[in-house]
Write a structure and sequence with these properties.
This protein has no helices and 29 strands. Bound molecules: calcium ion (4 copies).
């Protein structure tokens, strides 16, 4: 069997134009049965290759290989008939066109190939002012499919969270590749950043997927209001097709933020429990109770379902004039708060608030007296 030799020639895709590349070369059964030509597509493109001018009594086939060396398209007509590969949608990346002499001694040939970048649809503007408006998010997830990359530097989405009686909401965000797959940019992993921004366009949270194409997924407690999500490539040559899924679960507030708007509760020897939340959008919860005679107050505060508290929290016992009688904190370890105190007859307030401004804490408050 004759030794295979190959010639290699490299072609880079021209920026936008549909410049056809014409190659004139030859194959020889004894010394050069295979020619390879490297084609670099910097953008997702349509692609055509045509091989013609094969001499009588020869047969040359044409193949297109991806960067792993797998044949992804081939034209293998018999005899000296011309060969053609036509692909409507080829991802950006490095490919090899391979001509192989299958029959005959030697022939010249002509190989013409061209590519035309596909312009991706863009439904999301590149500034907050031109953001795609999603309206008010709800607990039902909504998914948007789009693209960022060399042809579209960023995508802005604008939305609101919160509804009457719900000053806080928990945003859930997930970003995957197209159809829920890995983030991809041609034959590489896509690298993408998600930036959550407030109404002043300040970044609240940034998450990135850089090396493995894995989804970006996070939740964030937000005060009711207007927000933006911005999608950008992490590296300049990154990006790709993506699916963005958003939902927001409203967090209701049943305890007012001042003594005047306190939730009035009646106490007995049987503990009464109140589940609520303090944090973004809801800086305090006031509870008001009145004792007709001297009693011992028992107060406990835990996470929901008896679990640990998710963040720091503070409890203040206040008298009828709103003076603080006692303060208890749960700062770092999520431990519950317990408070026992003898009280004279009168009206009192319990105020629950985040320990740090950034703390977001669902809780269950139990009171008996
Ligand atoms: Ca886009
Ligand atoms: Ca855009
Ligand atoms: Ca609350
Ligand atoms: Ca409140």
């Amino acid at each position: 069997m004759s030794e295979l030799t190959s010639r290699t020639q490299t072609f880079a895709q021209s920026a936008r134009s549909r410049a056809a590349q014409t190659i004139r070369d030859s194959l020889n059964r004894r010394t050069n049965r295979v020619d390879t030509f490297t084609v670099n597509l910097s953008k997702r493109s349509s692609f055509n290759a045509n091989l013609s001018g094969i001499k009588r009594k020869n047969n040359v086939d044409l193949e297109l290989l991806n960067s792993s060396g797998t044949v992804i398209a081939a034209s293998r007509n018999p005899g000296r008939r011309s060969e053609q590969i036509v692909l409507g949608d080829l991802a950006a990346g490095t490919y090899t066109l391979r001509t192989t002499l299958k029959r005959g001694k030697q022939t010249a040939y002509r190989l013409v190939h061209d590519s035309t970048p596909l312009t991706p649809a863009d439904f999301a503007g590149n500034t907050p002012g031109t953001a795609r408006s999603l309206g008010s998010l709800s607990a039902s997830p909504m998914t948007m499919s789009d693209y960022v990359g060399s042809e579209d530097s960023n995508d802005f989405y604008g939305f609101t969270v919160g509804e009457p009686g719900s000053p806080s909401a928990k945003l859930s965000l997930k970003l995957t590749g197209a159809a829920g797959g890995l983030l991809r940019n041609g034959d590489r992993f896509g690298n993408i950043s998600v930036k959550l921004r407030n109404s002043l366009n300040e970044v609240i949270e940034t998450e990135s997927s850089v090396f493995d194409g894995n989804a970006i997924e996070f939740t964030q407690t937000l005060a009711a209001g207007n927000y933006f999500v911005e999608i950008v490539p992490y590296f300049r040559d990154g990006g790709g097709d993506y699916d963005l899924t958003l939902s927001a679960a409203a967090i209701a507030d049943s305890a007012g933020n001042t003594p005047a708007t306190a939730r009035t509760v009646g106490l007995s020897s049987i503990p009464a429990s109140f589940q609520d939340f303090v944090g973004a959008g809801d800086p305090s919860d006031f509870y008001k109770f009145t004792l007709g005679s001297p009693r011992t107050l028992n107060l406990t505060l835990t996470g929901v379902g008896g679990n640990l508290l998710e963040d720091g929290i503070q409890v203040k016992l206040r008298d009828s004039l709103n003076n603080v009688i006692r303060t208890e904190n749960s700062v770092f370890d999520g431990a519950s708060i317990s408070l026992t105190r003898s009280l004279t007859a009168g009206t009192y307030f319990v105020e629950v608030s985040p320990y740090f401004d950034s703390d977001n804490t669902p809780y269950v408050l139990s009171l008996s007296a």
